[in-house]
Amino acid sequence: MPLDTQFLQSLADIVGEEHVRGQNAVAMLDPGVDPSNFAAGLAVRPSSAAEVAAILSLCDATGVPVISHGGRTGLAGGAVSAPGELVLMTDRLDELTIDPVGRVAIVGAGISLQSLQEACAAEGLSPGIDLGARGSATVGGMVSTNAGGMEAFRYGMMRQRLLGMEAVLADGTVLCDLALVPKNNEGYDLRQLFCGAEGTLGVVTRVTMKLERADPPSVTMLAACPNARTAIRAMRNIEDRGGMLRAEIMWRDYARVVAEHTGLSRVLEFCDAAVYLIIETALDLDGLGEALSPSLDAGDVIDAVIAQSGREAADIWGIREDTFAASWSLPHQLWFDISLPLACLDTYMASLRARLDTLAPSLVLFGLGHLADGNLHLTICRKCSFERELRDGISQAVEHGVKDLGGSMSAEHGIGTAKLAILERNASAEKLAVMRRLKAALDPNGILNPGKVVPAAR
Amino acid sequence: MPLDTQFLQSLADIVGEEHVRGQNAVAMLDPGVDPSNFAAGLAVRPSSAAEVAAILSLCDATGVPVISHGGRTGLAGGAVSAPGELVLMTDRLDELTIDPVGRVAIVGAGISLQSLQEACAAEGLSPGIDLGARGSATVGGMVSTNAGGMEAFRYGMMRQRLLGMEAVLADGTVLCDLALVPKNNEGYDLRQLFCGAEGTLGVVTRVTMKLERADPPSVTMLAACPNARTAIRAMRNIEDRGGMLRAEIMWRDYARVVAEHTGLSRVLEFCDAAVYLIIETALDLDGLGEALSPSLDAGDVIDAVIAQSGREAADIWGIREDTFAASWSLPHQLWFDISLPLACLDTYMASLRARLDTLAPSLVLFGLGHLADGNLHLTICRKCSFERELRDGISQAVEHGVKDLGGSMSAEHGIGTAKLAILERNASAEKLAVMRRLKAALDPNGILNPGKVVPAAR
Q: In this predicted structure, what is the pLDDT of residue B1?
């Protein structure tokens, strides 16, 4: 009975009674993407690394698992909790300091991406990372999942934005090196180990981040292309002139369904095509016209529209970003988040469609993604629920060939619980063994987010 | 007596007799930067990860330390060996495949940076990393030290270039994931752990790297500035217009001495200044003029010259890159490789000079570095050798304040043996303890580059 009165009193002694939240209090909180995120029924809200250290020491001594929460926008079940566990909320780790001269930020784990973006924008800067869940996703969660998003192709994923880190180990040891410089090789890079570990090796409490200058005024274009290959060529023509800010791809079925459900069908009326390419660019209209011209001549782009206002640009982005709208008519969905070398996109998508047809022709395949990274978000959906066997078959249909092509079965959403089986099938036994050795070395009692990221040994 | 006949025969069985090199053979090899690199007197030249695995298994079983060698250009003693140890040469790990469509490369550890650069250039691409030792430095060594160089401010250090890795653990386990995609979060990122570990956690045998498009034609400018702060403002004016390819800073004493010893004094005749700024930019002459004009008006740039030919550009770069020329008149040198937040450069350099004056006014301070990263290479030198006490005093004078300012005492050259004491003084006890736990978890018998990177427990 670790979660007894004494345990609760110890928590209250650390953070203050008002920051320990029991069953009734957490029931009123938004659980985020996964309804089980607050299943623990107990949460604690520390306000400093020292308080996190005291909580982890207590939990390590009493064997209570600790599940760290950021914005609960994770799509892989990394924040799911269970009775008997303790949710560690990071929302009070809310330091935010911007140094506009050095172009760096000191950011508490609980700061949302949008708050960081706004603070940077006030100084003409940007954190160099953006994703759809910006309003809720926290920097701590983004570090812990090594989040990617729409700017990763030019500024890297979260691990590339990190300069320094403060993190707490399972035994309460605080590691703190809030460096403000990009070149920093002082022994093993523990920042990089904790980044992407989803709270299984330590709890990230604060980071320092490299900032970029804010994007210049941009033009948003929606282009209709015959396939991914042609979309890539059109993208390269723009990229190689400099100033490509974003490049997203949507396959027809996804774009049409979301446009319909969000009242944006008019946006796609200019052309019915297999693939839509959204480009945001710093090129002016003349420059964009010059970059686009050879693609139109070659038939790589069938037709294109350029947003004439912020509203029109927002409509185009609305189709790309309102991914949940796709679930209105097809509520049963399996999500995948993969990366592929760019040259493989068309053949992969065609062969996946064929594999799905073999399983059940009624399956709908939604495809969209970050084109320059070859990062595809695939949703396989239908009106009725999936039987276990079909679910497994679909996963294997998606996995087929990805690793052999040099791709990844987990691009930017993390492993959590949802992708454990996929990781187990697609990582080598040697790698999994090393992961277990590292986990055992840093969290010998296994209290940090147990059952996540690291597949259990057979 | 592990290095007995049976051990040598076992090595020969793995790689073939001609690829085991004894005392006489290694004595004829270039030891590189450190004369002790081949002090082991025994080297083996595997041609595949499987051969590396067999060698490490043998060494792990017999307790023979293994020192991996790349180009032996390391400045921190990471490749130093001793009798009884085995040098593992990577020169036969020489795969090199470029995919120009996907803009990725598969690169054996033994490939030199220059070979990689040339293969990329043939496809209009670049590895996105460059440093002075390009002719000798190998990709394996650059991964193991997380090399930086002159393009890191825009493309990141070596860890940001890495997509996939093949590495061999101490026990002969081969970890191989040669992914070709930038977004890839399949559990703990072992690539990032091995990168920068200088061969103490595993031997890197092959990597996949992200490539960039080749730089456009560039203009090289040498500007004379009153101090670092003004040089930074001038740099930002150019950077914020896009197209800044390189930005290097040299303080007067370094520039004058190297120019004199390389016959390039005429290059500096246009202006005697405290600081010289080298900018390589993709801006055309008009654009550069516009970017420079406010800096000239403000006095941030006293005067500037623009190279009118490739020869003139090479002369400017000759002063920056011929760092060893500085040792001709002042052969006794202590090297430091630090990072500082940009806003601190002038006050740090002035206070360092003052601290050195307190120790011995005759000490000469050479300063140069990668300005956009705040990465300074400092050499403190004099005509006669340093006593132990003075050596320690100088190191402490350089270290003073660096960590408190958010800087780093080890930017891009690694820890090796030369920086062990500095790491021990400047990293927290908690971090050092975690490093030891990781080392013990992955190399329990301590055969991989022992005595390097990880300070021994007290």
A: 43
Q: Considering CB atoms only, which of B374, B413, B414 is closest to A181?
A: B374
The 3-state secondary structure of chain B reads CCCCHHHHHHHHHHHCHHHEECHHHHHCCCCCCCHHHHCCCCEECCCCHHHHHHHHHHHHHHCCCEEEECCCCCCCCCCCCCCCCEEEECCCCCCEEEECCCCEEEEECCCEHHHHHHHHHCCCEECCCCCCCCCCCEHHHHHHHCCCCCCHHHHCCHHHHEEEEEEECCCCCEEEECCCCCCCCCCCCHHHHHCCCCCCCCEEEEEEEECEECCCCCEEEEEEECCHHHHHHHHHHHHCCCCEEEEEEEEHHHHHHHHHHCCCHHHHCCCCCCEEEEEEECCCHHHHHHHHHHHHHCCCCCEEEECCCHHHHHHHHHHHHCHHHHHCCCCEEEEEEEECCHHHHHHHHHHHHHHHHHHCCCCEEEEEEEHHHCEEEEEEEECCCCCHHHHHHHHHHHHCCCCCCCCECCCCCCCCCCCHHHHHHHCCHHHHHHHHHHHHHHCCCCCECCCCCCCCCC
**Of B162, B137, B145, B139, nearest to B198 (Cα)?**
B145
| pLDDT value at residue B447 | 98
Among A102, A187, A426, the residue with its CB nearest the CB of B186 is: A426
A334: which strand partners? A380
The beta strands (E) that lie in A57-141 are given as 66-69, 86-89, 96-99, 104-108, 125-126
pLDDT above 70: residue A1? no
- To the nearest whole Å, the CA of A175 is away from the closest chain B CA by 6
Our CA-based measurement puts residue A6 at a distance from the nearest CA of chain B, in whole angstroms, of 30
In sequence order, the β-bridge partners of residue B335 are B379
CA distance B244 to B286: 15
ipTM of the complex: 0.95
- Least Cα separation, residue A32 to chain B (angstroms): 22
Instruction: Sort out which chain B residues have CB atoms less than 8 A from A208's CB and list them.
Output: 406
State the pTM of this model.
0.96
Interface test with A, best of B97, B146, B162, B184 (most A CBs within 10 A): B184
B63-74 confidence digits (pLDDT tens): 999 999 999 999
